[in-house]
Design a protein that fits this description.
Order of helices and strands: HHHHHHEEEEEEEEEEEEEE
Number of strands: 14
Radius of gyration: 22 Å
Distance between the termini: 45 Å
Number of helices: 6
């Protein structure tokens, strides 16, 4: 506990210095648009508290919103060194933040602090903005230290779970279209539209092709996002892991799944849902069209590796 607590204090000491410099610089260099961006993030937090997400997903999403809020302030400083340090600290504190925001009272306190910071920035009072950030980070430090006392479990033998077919599997937080859509054909072209519609929070949308090779269906890392992702499996058969967060912001072992996904399958993965890049089953590689907003991909690790096997 003492070692974890000291690490947190070291990170937060640097974070405090960085963010105080950043907010003063941002107030000199930024225009009103960045303040509006902060308000949008704060409004998303307000909606989060109003309901519509499980406790686990609320915690994950609040972690992402909190990171976005503070990184926005730092980015407006236009100082690349401050931006780099802030990003490093954010990555180091991600697990602690997840634990903190599993409690609604901590989300509410952060929301009130963010509103006070916005109000001070909008008033043009740099001293008041620094004071609000100081108070907010002091609260954050206290909350993180409360959750730092639990020792991590030692690595155990590898967990094994049965691989299931997606046609027979319900996946919490994932919308599935299992059948290929009938394409529209005309002269020299055909068009296969997807009936799945994902409502993204952001208007900055991009797409790409994800290629996966044959490998053992063995996973320990999982990633999650602050917005939805759309997957269209166009080649090969994939073995893909999914999981949920538990009440402490860790991977819930009881929710672990490794699912066989054939080509033609389409998925929408909800914000905050744990998953990872699939492996190919068999010699043919897997190719997936992925569409999502521009966003980070934070990762968490299960306490042990998870190996999928076929039920005989």
């Amino acid at each position: 506990f003492r070692e974890n607590s000291e690490n947190i204090e070291n990170y937060m000491e640097v974070r405090n210095a960085v963010e105080l410099m950043a907010v003063r610089m941002a107030m000199k260099k930024g225009d009103k648009r960045w303040i509006e961006h902060l308000k949008v993030i704060s409004e998303k937090t307000k909606e989060l508290l109003a309901g519509g997400h499980t406790g686990q997903n609320r915690g994950v999403l609040m972690t992402l919103y909190d990171e976005e809020f503070h990184q926005k302030i730092t980015s407006v400083s236009k100082n690349p060194l401050l931006i780099c340090i802030e990003k490093t600290i954010t990555d180091c504190l991600a697990d602690y933040r997840n634990k903190v925001f599993m409690l609604d009272e901590n989300i509410e306190r952060a929301f009130r602090s963010h509103c006070a910071i916005i109000e001070a920035i909008e008033s043009g009072d740099a001293n008041a903005a620094e004071e609000m950030i100081n108070e907010h980070l002091a609260d954050s430090l206290a909350d993180m230290k409360k959750g730092a006392g639990k020792k991590l479990r030692r690595e155990r033998c590898m967990m094994e779970i049965v691989i299931t077919d997606i046609k027979d599997t319900e996946i919490d937080g994932v919308t599935v279209l299992r059948e290929e859509t009938e394409p529209y054909r005309e002269n020299y072209f055909e068009w296969a539209a997807s009936p799945l519609i994902a409502g993204f929070q952001s208007s900055q949308i991009s797409g790409g092709i994800l290629s996966c090779q044959t490998a053992k269906p063995q996973f320990q890392e999982f990633e999650y996002h602050k917005d939805k992702e759309f997957f269209y499996f166009v080649q090969g058969t994939a073995l893909m892991p999914f999981a949920n967060f538990d009440s402490e912001g860790k991977v819930d072992e009881a929710s672990l799944q490794i699912v066989r996904i054939p080509k033609g399958t389409q998925l929408i993965i909800d914000a905050g849902k744990l998953h990872f890049v699939p492996v190919a089953e068999g010699p043919e590689s897997v190719r997936i069209v992925v569409v999502s907003p521009k966003m980070d991909s934070p990762r968490v690790c299960a306490s042990e590796s998870v190996n999928g096997f076929l039920k005989s």
